[in-house]
Amino acid sequence: MMVFNETLSMSADEWADFQRLTHAPWKPRTREEFDAMCDLGAARHKADNTDGCGWIRATGCSAMKFGPGGEMNFPADPRRLAYVKVFGTMPNDEQLREFENAPPLRPGLKSVD
Question: In whole angstroms, what separates CA 39 from the centre of its chain?
């Protein structure tokens, strides 16, 4: 995605991903439209409880919005989304580093005497 003179442009693949994630009815033309479609996508996932985990998908939609300094957060960072799937919140940089450096979580069976 690119921003030039306050106008957004997305490739066909980016548009398809954005539409799939947010159910957006049209390509956003401005940052405001982009953020609004992220909010609407989050609200829809919460209301529909998409795939039984609407809150995870809603958090992902909210995380794609432009940052306070105008930084782009789309396409979504799959590493941060993996953290969200485990903990349900968006990580800060330190939490993400700890998560990535932790040994993998593996469910296991233990024998009980």
Answer: 11
- Block residue for tokens 């593996």: 106
- Stated pTM of the model: 0.67
Structure-token match 């998908």, residue found: 57
- Supply the pLDDT for residue 72: 82
> What is the rounded CA–CA span in Å between residue 11 and residue 19?
12
Which one-letter amino acid corresponds to residue 43?
Answer: A
Q: What is the 3-state secondary structure (H, E, C) of 29-92?
A: CCHHHHHHHHHHHHHHHHHHCHHHCHHHHHHHHHHCCCCCCCCCCCCCCHHHHHHHHHHCCCCC
Compute the average pLDDT of residues 89-104: 83
pLDDT, tens digit, 9 for 90 and up, residues 27-46 = 999 999 999 999 999 999 99
SS3 (DSSP) at 112? coil
Please check whether residue 54 is in contact with residue 47, taking contact to mean a CB–CB distance below 8 angstroms: yes
